[in-house]
Specification:
This protein is mostly helical. α1 runs antiparallel to α7, α3 runs antiparallel to α4 and α7 packs antiparallel against α8. It is globular and about 75 Å long. The relative contact order is 0.10.
């Protein structure tokens, strides 16, 4: 069972990483990111296929398959279809969205399986689910901090250049183009991490069975944070908004993120950290 638990963890983390690369390719047409995403997703497919073959050999009779194996096959099919679509049609957004659903189904299936043991002996299985959820969320928030810092640098440089003020500090900063690019890349990393974290949070609530938590202030505000960064990416990719407007919106999105993080301690029913 311990070996199976490490296999489950490996599939979940590799799956999440592949989605991060796919999202990066979708918003930036990055071939290297697409190759990495495809390679990692293919590795997830190999691990899933190996587990399915093991299950078939172990059960022999399909009538003994449980709901766990059924949902596992469903997730495997989603991965298979997305790989084929990516290979022959190259619809990156479709691949990303289908695999977000597949990721959520797989996580719900793993962590709801009766008798499964967590990786660490003193944890219960919900602790492990929450650990992955928190890890993804913290990674997303860290990326948003980096993005906000670069947007602040962009506004500073933009103002100094507009007013034709030069200083030694300016020479030590990257160009406007680079600061805008770095802010964008950090947001591209943070947004899918937050989306995956939210999806695991939804899985945790579903397993707990307390569906009123879907309307908890932290959960609702997290959707607003995600939408704020999606709108930032939308403005940059499709509307081609000027850099100073993008930087201002990125900072506004970060303020929403900060308020979401701080106010949750007072208003959330279960997202309290003190």
């Amino acid at each position: 069972m311990v070996t199976q638990t490490w296999l489950y963890d490996a599939i979940i983390y590799i799956y999440a990483l592949s989605l991060l690369f796919y999202f990066s390719d979708f918003v930036g047409s990055n071939r290297s990111a697409k190759r990495m995403g495809t390679g990692l997703l293919s590795f997830v497919w190999v691990l899933q296929t190996a587990y399915l073959v093991y299950s078939l050999v172990e059960h022999r009779n399909l009538s003994t398959f449980s709901m766990f194996e059924t949902l596992f096959i469903f997730s495997w099919l989603l991965v298979t279809v997305s790989i084929l679509i990516n290979r022959f049609f190259r619809i990156e957004l479709f691949v990303f969205l289908v695999n977000v659903l597949g990721f959520a189904v797989l996580a719900a299936n793993f962590f709801s399986r009766p008798g499964i043991s967590p990786t660490l002996s003193h944890w219960n299985i919900n602790d492990e689910l929450l650990f992955i959820h928190i890890t993804l969320a913290v990674g997303g928030y860290a990326a948003f901090v980096v993005s906000a810092v670069f947007s602040g640098m962009y506004l500073f440089l933009h103002r100094m250049l507009k007013e034709k003020k030069w200083s030694q500090q300016m020479l030590r900063l990257p160009s406007l183009e680079k600061t805008d690019r770095y802010a964008f890349v950090a947001a591209v990393i943070g947004a899918p991490l937050l989306l995956l974290s939210i999806s695991l949070g939804i899985v945790w609530i579903a397993l707990e069975g307390d569906f009123t938590l879907f309307f908890d202030s932290k959960v609702v505000n997290s959707w607003f944070v995600l939408l704020a960064y999606v709108f930032y990416l939308f403005q940059r990719m499709l509307l081609k908004a000027p850099g100073n407007r993008l930087a201002l919106w990125n900072l506004a999105a970060f303020v929403i993120t900060l308020l979401n993080f701080l106010l949750a301690n007072y208003y959330s029913g279960f997202h309290q950290w003190s």
